[in-house]
Write a structure and sequence with these properties.
This protein is α+β, with helices and mostly antiparallel strands and 218 residues long. 42% of the residues lie in helices and 18% in strands.
């Protein structure tokens, strides 16, 4: 028995593949999708760039508008620091005040009748030491200031010398040591008044330097 004959009349381009995915159809679709995805991606990037540029311009305008206010704030901060420093300095001086009034109000009780004061002065503090040229960053940071009071006067009569000594002892008494820490007559500051001739033979001139409590700038 003869085998049946099969006659294939299809050309090669008329043949269909058994695969459901056809390369001739999918290749253009993949290309189109790739282009669309690229366009969307670049569009998003461009949108972000435009948004960032707009935000930058907006922020720049706002910064320019805020510059005067910023300068005002900086000026106010500088003024506040200056005023605060002044207030602290005033507080230091307020804390460093010495109460001369109460002590000087008691002083007449201890002054003999034959003594007359001609001057009572609180001497200015000594100048601070000059800065060290080798270490200019080191400054005098001493919070204490020495205070010296000077009493100048004259004593008359036969007991002039003893009256001045009594006054000196009184300045060293506990009643006055709340202000005066020590009292001394400098060398040559206790002498006879010769300026008015013989009429002042029994008159003695004196000077007493009193070291007071220091001023504490704290």
């Amino acid at each position: 028995m003869r085998a049946p004959l099969h006659l294939d009349l299809l050309s090669d381009d008329e043949r269909f593949s058994s695969s459901p995915v056809r390369l001739r159809v999918m290749a253009p679709l993949i290309s189109i999708l790739s282009v669309l995805v690229s366009l969307v991606w670049w569009g998003l990037i461009a949108l972000r760039i435009n948004t960032a540029a707009g935000l930058r311009d907006t922020l720049k305008i706002e910064i320019d508008n805020l510059k005067p206010q910023h300068e005002t704030i900086l000026r106010l901060i500088a003024e506040e620091k200056e005023f605060s420093a002044s207030l602290r300095q005033l507080a230091f001086y307020r804390n460093a005040r010495l109460a001369f009034g109460d002590t000087l109000a008691l002083l007449p009780e201890y002054v003999p009748e034959n003594i007359q004061f001609t001057e009572l002065r609180v001497l200015p503090p000594p100048p601070p030491p000059p800065p060290n040229p080798k270490k200019p960053e080191l400054r005098n940071t001493n919070s204490l200031e020495n205070v010296t009071a000077r009493l100048i006067g004259r004593a008359s009569g036969e007991n002039a010398s003893s009256s001045v000594n009594d006054l000196l002892l009184s300045l060293r008494s506990p009643a006055l040591t709340n202000l005066f820490r020590s009292a001394e007559i400098p060398k040559g500051a206790f002498r006879q008044d010769v300026a008015r001739g013989g009429a002042s033979r029994d008159t003695l001139l004196f000077e007493i330097n009193c070291t007071c409590l220091p001023r504490r700038f704290e």
